[in-house]
């Protein structure tokens, strides 16, 4: 029997080791790395940037010549008759006629009022806009990963607090049962202790559910199997060194939303340059080498062929188009004005968001210190209360109050750290300064 007990203990120990190894410790750095590689929105933004990069070419801007090969073959079968000048006539049924033309042509716009150069610059700005959108997507998703990760850390800390209170509730129930056995306590005290223990177990069960669901959400952000098992760190480290002025300066340089508005204004300015280019003539060079062959069953010439080079140029100038040119330029100028307004609006929104988030950040830093002190006091109070409860000098209600105060203090301290971390993440996201 003793051997079997040892064997069972060994098997249980090995099982616990295997389960522990399966619980991968996921650090915040690893989580961000996985998100950068796997997240679907980031992948789409990366592909969109590649599209913008691919579009930046001289050919797409209209700077390069265009060569075209063509072939045309026309055939016919007709019943034909001809009357000549001398009065003779000729007729032929099912007369076959064939015309074949093929060759290569070349066209090149050598001047269009500098529109092609403005178009190339615009394509480069669109590439910058794609890069800014990628940065924005990465910042948002990394911010979500950070928030979800430290939410798990907070919930893990709350689970530990609830585990602690269940241990205390079990001790209380055991003491109550012992006191009842020796006649120093009523059955009511035992029942109250049992009810409180059951309440704590229900709370723990709900917290475990919330923790499991938060794990699934983080796995979603990491674009991996929702059932992937992992654990997170037990510590929330808050950066206490953030300075409002530094964050404002960084936001002016790095915030993707503001950067996008500045790029949009530049794109609008280049659009106006392209529209103004329509006031100038467009000069095209043309060239080609063509082959032509024809066959006719009836007529003076039964077969002809020709081949040769052709070249030249053409120029066009818009003289009057119903004042559309003036209208287009006016609209383009208004678009530039709107872009400038959008920049100013984004600046105001950004400064407001940073100022608000920074004030929240400072408040939560103060709350961390207060709640840390509260937790220490509540812990000391619980220890004293537990000692008094063991010797029967305190009521069960007072003991339960001390117990709940301790648990609530631990939860509030954990929540204060988490809220401060959220404020830190929000500030760094607005400043474009999240490290990944």
Walkthrough of the structure:
- The protein is α+β, with helices and mostly antiparallel strands and 436 residues long.
- It has 2 domains: 24-56 and 113-281 and 323-430, Up-down Bundle (Outer membrane efflux proteins (OEP)), CATH 1.20.1600.10; 66-111 and 282-316, Outer membrane efflux proteins (OEP), CATH 2.20.200.
- It has helices spanning 2-22, 28-38, 40-55, 115-181, 187-221, 244-254, 256-276, 324-390, 396-430, and strands spanning 24-26, 66-83, 89-111, 230-232, 282-296, 303-316.
- The longest helix has 67 residues, at 115-181.
- It is elongated.
- 25% of the residues are buried.
- The model is unreliable at 1-21 (pLDDT under 50).
List its traits:
9 helices, 2 domains, two-stranded parallel sheet, 65% helix, transmembrane, disordered N terminus, porin activity, elongated, alpha+beta, Outer membrane efflux proteins (OEP), cell outer membrane, 436 residues, four-stranded antiparallel beta sheet, TolC-like
> Quick one: overall form?
elongated
Give the helix/strand class: alpha+beta
The strand order across the widest sheet is 2-3-5-6
Largest sheet: 4 strands, antiparallel
Task: Give the radius of gyration.
Answer: 40 Å
- Cα separation of the termini: 57 Å
What are the secondary-structure elements, in order, as H or E?
A: HEHHEEHHEHHEEHH
Mean pLDDT: 88
User: What is the CATH C level class of the largest domain, in words?
Assistant: Mainly Alpha
Would you report the number of β strands?
A: 6
Helix content: 55-70%
> How many separate domains?
2
* CATH homologous superfamily descriptor of the largest domain: Outer membrane efflux proteins (OEP)
**Strand percent estimate:** 15-25%
Total of DSSP H or I helical runs spanning 4+ residues: 9
């Amino acid at each position: 029997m003793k051997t079997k007990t040892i064997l069972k203990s060994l098997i249980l120990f090995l099982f616990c080791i295997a389960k522990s190894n399966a619980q991968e410790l996921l650090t915040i750095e690893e989580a961000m790395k996985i998100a950068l590689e796997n997240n679907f929105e980031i992948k789409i933004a990366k592909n969109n940037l590649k599209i913008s990069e691919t579009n930046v070419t001289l050919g797409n801007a209209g700077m390069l010549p265009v060569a075209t090969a063509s072939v045309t073959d026309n055939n016919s079968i007709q019943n034909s008759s001809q009357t000549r000048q001398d009065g003779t006539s000729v007729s032929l049924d099912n007369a076959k006629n064939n015309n074949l033309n093929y060759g290569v042509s070349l066209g090149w716009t050598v001047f269009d009022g500098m529109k092609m150069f403005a178009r190339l610059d615009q394509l480069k700005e669109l590439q910058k806009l794609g890069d800014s959108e990628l940065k924005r997507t990465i910042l948002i998703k990394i911010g979500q990963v950070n928030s979800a990760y430290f939410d798990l850390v907070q919930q893990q800390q709350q689970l530990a607090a609830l585990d602690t209170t269940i241990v205390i509730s079990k001790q209380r129930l055991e003491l109550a049962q012992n006191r009842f056995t020796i006649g120093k306590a009523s059955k009511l005290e035992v029942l109250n202790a049992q009810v409180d223990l059951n309440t704590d177990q229900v709370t723990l069960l709900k917290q475990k559910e919330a923790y499991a669901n938060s794990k699934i959400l983080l796995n979603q952000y990491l674009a991996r199997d929702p059932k992937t098992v992992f654990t997170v760190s037990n510590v929330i480290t808050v950066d206490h060194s953030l300075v409002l002025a530094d964050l404002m300066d960084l936001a002016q340089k790095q915030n993707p939303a503001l950067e996008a508005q500045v790029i949009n204004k530049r794109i609008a300015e280049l659009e106006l340059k392209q529209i103004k280019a329509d006031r100038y003539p467009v000069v095209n060079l043309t060239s080609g080498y063509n082959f032509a062959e024809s066959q006719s069953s009836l007529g003076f010439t039964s077969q002809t062929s020709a081949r040769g080079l052709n070249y030249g140029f053409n120029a066009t100038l818009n003289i009057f188009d119903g004042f559309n040119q003036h209208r287009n330029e006016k609209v383009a100028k208004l678009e530039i004005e709107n872009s400038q307004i959008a920049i100013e609006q984004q600046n105001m929104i950004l400064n407001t968001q940073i100022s608000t988030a920074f004030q929240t950040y400072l408040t939560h830093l103060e709350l961390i210190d207060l709640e840390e002190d509260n937790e220490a006091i509540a812990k000391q109070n619980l220890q004293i209360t537990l000692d008094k409860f063991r010797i029967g000098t305190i009521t069960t209600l007072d003991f339960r109050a001390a117990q709940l105060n301790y648990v609530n203090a631990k939860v509030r301290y954990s929540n204060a750290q988490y809220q401060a971390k959220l404020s830190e993440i929000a500030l760094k996201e607005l400043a474009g300064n999240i490290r990944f």
